[in-house]
Write a structure and sequence with these properties.
Chain lengths: ~350, ~220
């Protein structure tokens, strides 16, 4: 066990109450903004003190409310990359990097050597005397990462590292960051509200909702077999209905007023059902092999970049979103809102949730 | 023309500005961290000298330091000199009256400071002292400078409390402002006018300095942007 966190803190608007462990891995924390992700990182770093709990890294206790242990942030040696990168605005790039070496008693030459190494590694040559305000978002992030790595932290925490960047830059920096994380090799926490980033970068993920976190699960599991409705929602699922398992192999989707046939073994106590929009497709009547085929009315047809988004509703039921690739839609292109259409769902794509 | 009042005014203003600079900044820094209720009470007390008539401030200073008061008596017996009616008595008056200006502007500057800068400094292992002087203070530089200049100007122009605490003794406690009043009172209009001009000149220089500093700052920002 590398990192163990179990903390509680009352913020008034919500209560942070989370518990998780992380090994030598990249653990993602997925949640919407304001759910307590950043606060969790700040508690681990020691700049915010939890009301109660225990934080431990590599057998060093950072915080224990019962034993009255609370190490200063300076004594914890963890790296925290802030969302706005928090570079010192009054210092240029080199001064920002040198500041990080103050804690280590190094000779002037050794200092210069390490700074120069980092400058080269993060493609910062030529920017030595630029102030943070003169740097692009991507350059700022590189300086901030370089500055953290100069302190040789025992673990790394990244708080929405790409949120402040435009989409074009985001992808480039994500590739760079993946290399950095691979080389770093120690425990890393990656906080984001973006499921795609989490899926690509993290090994495991825990979902945070209203200050409460779920048990970490391997990333792929969250997307294929999520357990809770929140987890499925954060993993990008768009269609949910309250549900009850009527009998073996049959689930009543109450909001949609339809009965779905699927494997219910071990999921008898499910309360919700979720279906990803791109796993639902329009079918023609001749497709008899599918067991879940329903007639719906088309409410709206929205053209997206690479697909059509259909909003359909079963008889007297809540709306369902269907994503159809442009190629597949060719066959149905005569359809207009108000028409009836048949939609089909594979049994394996029906997610039973709590 | 005897230049003593100019010299005396400047030394009082400089010394009280230095005192106010440090005390104002540290009060602003530490009070911001206190419980809201305590903060509110202290805030009122520390800002009062700004809104009270200077004579009321002078009254309180005399109440505390006057030569017939316990502390004044003790001080005279121990050091053989009085705390009031000396040139340095003006420092007490000027410091107390100028303090709220520094305190409030510094507090405003600290409140707009991005705390994540301080947090990131801490996680990088930097001492709180280093973060305060090398990150927080430079980031709040404009507000701090504005506060210092305002405090200096206020200390230089102090009249009410000073006249009560230090009085007017030519060559000993006279400041520009008390001199102008005395000269006017004794119908020496011409000399009073000369001192008025001196005062206007100093104020103009201070204001020019402020404007130039501000211009330099915005120019620096523009080239950085």
């Amino acid at each position: 066990m590398r990192l163990y966190v179990k903390i509680k803190k009352d913020f008034g608007s919500f209560i942070l109450d989370t518990e998780f462990e992380a090994d030598k891995e990249v653990l993602g924390i997925l949640g919407e903004s304001g759910c307590g992700k950043s606060m969790t990182l700040r508690c681990i770093a020691g700049v915010v003190t939890p009301d109660e709990g225990h934080i431990e890294l590599d057998e060093t206790v950072f915080f224990d409310s019962e034993k009255k242990i609370n190490l200063k942030p300076q004594e914890r040696h963890v790296g925290l990359l802030f969302q706005n990168y928090a570079l010192f605005p009054n210092m240029n790039v080199v001064q920002n990097l040198r500041a990080a070496l103050r804690g280590q008693k190094l000779g002037k030459e050794e200092q210069q050597k390490r700074v120069a190494e980092m400058m080269a590694k993060f493609y910062l040559q030529g920017l030595e005397h630029h102030k943070p305000s003169q740097l692009s978002g991507g350059q700022q992030q590189r300086v901030a990462l370089a500055r953290i790595l100069l302190t040789r932290p025992k673990m790394l925490m990244l708080d929405e590292p790409f949120a402040a960047l435009d989409e074009f830059l985001r992808w480039k920096l994500e590739l760079e960051l993946e290399d950095v994380l691979k080389e770093f090799g120690a425990t890393t926490l990656f906080v984001s509200h973006n499921r795609d980033e989490i899926y690509r970068i993290c090994d495991r993920v825990c979902v945070m909702n209203q200050g409460k976190s779920s048990e970490p699960v391997p990333v792929k599991e969250l997307f294929t077999t999520p357990i809770s409705r929140e987890a499925a929602y954060l993993s990008g699922c768009k269609n949910f209905s309250d549900a009850a398992v009527a009998e073996k192999g049959e689930v009543m989707a109450l909001d949609w007023g339809i009965t779905l046939k699927c494997d219910t073994t071990g999921k008898e106590d499910s309360t919700s059902v979720g279906i990803r929009s791109h796993f639902i497709r329009p079918v023609t009547e001749t497709e008899g092999l599918m067991r879940n085929v329903f007639s719906c009315r088309i409410e709206r047809i929205i053209e997206d970049v690479f697909s059509y988004i259909l909003i359909v509703s079963p008889k007297e039921g809540a709306q369902i979103r269907v994503d159809v690739s442009k190629e597949d839609w060719l066959e149905y292109r005569e359809q207009v809102p108000g028409d009836e259409i048949l939609i089909g769902i594979e049994e394996k794509d029906i997610m039973l949730l709590k | 023309m005897d230049w003593f009042p100019l010299y005396n005014s400047l030394r009082i203003a400089v010394i009280s500005s230095v005192l106010v600079f440090f005390s104002g900044i540290f009060a602003a820094y530490y009070i911001a961290k206190l419980h809201p209720v305590v903060k509110g009470v202290l805030d009122v007390i520390l800002t009062l000298p700004m809104v009270l008539p200077p004579t009321v401030v002078g009254y309180f200073i005399l109440l505390l330091l006057g030569s017939k008061r316990p502390f004044g008596i003790w001080f005279y017996n121990t050091f053989g000199t009085k705390l009031v009616m000396n040139w340095y008595s003006g420092i007490f008056a000027a410091t107390i009256v100028a303090f709220p200006l520094m305190y409030r502007t510094a507090r405003g500057a600290f409140e707009s400071f991005d705390e994540t800068l301080s947090y990131s400094g801490q996680t990088l292992g930097l001492s709180n002292t280093y973060i305060f002087w090398k990150v927080r203070m430079p980031a709040c530089r404009q507000g701090i400078m504005a506060g210092t200049v305002l405090a200096f100007a206020r200390a230089l122009g102090e009249y009410g409390a000073t006249s009560m605490v230090a009085g007017y003794t030519p060559g000993k406690t006279a400041t520009i402002s008390t001199t102008v009043y005395q000269l006017w009172r004794t119908n020496d209009d011409l000399l009073a006018f000369k001192w008025v001009m001196v005062n206007i000149a100093i104020s103009a220089v201070v204001l020019l300095a402020v404007n130039m500093l501000e211009k330099k700052n915005t120019a620096g920002k523009r080239s950085a942007g």
